[in-house]
Amino acid sequence: MSSVITTTGLTKRYGRRTALSDCTLHVPAGHVVGLVGPNGAGKSTLLQLTCGLLTPTAGTIEVLGETPHTGSPRIGFVAQDTPVYGNLTIAEHLRFGAHLNPGWDQALAEGRIAELGLDPAQRAGKLSGGQRAQLALTLAIAKRPELLLLDEPVAALDPLARREFLQGLMAYAAEHGTSVVMSSHLVADLERVCDHLIVLVNSRVRVDGDVEELLGTHHRLTGPRRDPSTLGPGRHVVQASHTDVQSTLVVRSTAPVDDPTWASDRLDLEDLVLAYMTEAGAHGRDRVLEKR
Ligand SMILES: Nc1ncnc2c1ncn2[C@@H]1O[C@H](COP(=O)(O)OP(=O)(O)OP(=O)(O)O)[C@@H](O)[C@H]1O
């Protein structure tokens, strides 16, 4: 499977602060990828490295087969603060986009502005936060990029606008074969649209995989209290909590857990992400339980 983003040992430090550490990833082409993690985990840093706005401190990154550089017409990037020019009208933004981008699709841009009910003569500075986000997305997709990078694109949108935005994005990506990487804290939204998930915690990649496969291999086990190390080989305990009498584990395992004293449930994506975030917060390290 071809990759749109390949990183090896990718590390970014700002002075003494490490924003991204030893990150090795293969983001498959033609997918909608969710990028999640707590505040400060390194999501924006990874997206900015991907579009060439930042350069690595160590390690390598290749995007669409080349070293990323700013201004690439092959990459559309919508930053977290959805930058637009307050004094320019929407129509002027579109003209600016057409001037800068050889593959600019004016009909797509105008059609989207009309669908959103926005007046092309309106100055961007007078738009609401959600409307600015929609304008920024329109500018990014009208470039007809091969890869679309969106940093918390739905944060400013109301629930209905969010659903419409995500449905529109999926339809667009499927129709044009565009790869999308989208960061968000709204994991339930991502579960509806993403088929690949990356979880960053404490500057490190904790999960990188196909959503279906992740949901199929993670389980919540509940049973009488015991030491999780009795689970056997090949089981990665992501999160463990105990009362006096009961243990609850979130486990990653390819083989079924055949001990009948455990009750096993599937997780949704939000539970899965929270398990990785909670465990990292509590212990800050992996706990892989292998029987020797
Ligand atoms: N320009 C900068 N100078 C110094 N430190 C920075 C800079 N940008 C980010 N950082 C630090 O790098 C770390 C990762 O930040 P980043 O913005 O990538 O996280 P994030 O996962 O996108 O967070 P959020 O969900 O809050 O947007 C944080 O500790 C942040 O304080």
Automatic annotation (TrEMBL):
Gene3D superfamilies assigned: P-loop containing nucleotide triphosphate hydrolases (3.40.50.300)
Residues spanning the signal sequence: none
Keywords, comma-separated and alphabetical: ATP-binding, Nucleotide-binding, Transport
A Pfam family of this chain: ABC_tran
Segments forming domain ABC transporter: 5-227
Domain of life: Bacteria
A GO MF label: ATP binding
PANTHER family registered for this protein in UniProt: ABC TRANSPORTER ATP-BINDING PROTEIN ALBC-RELATED
Name by which UniProt lists this protein: ABC transporter ATP-binding protein
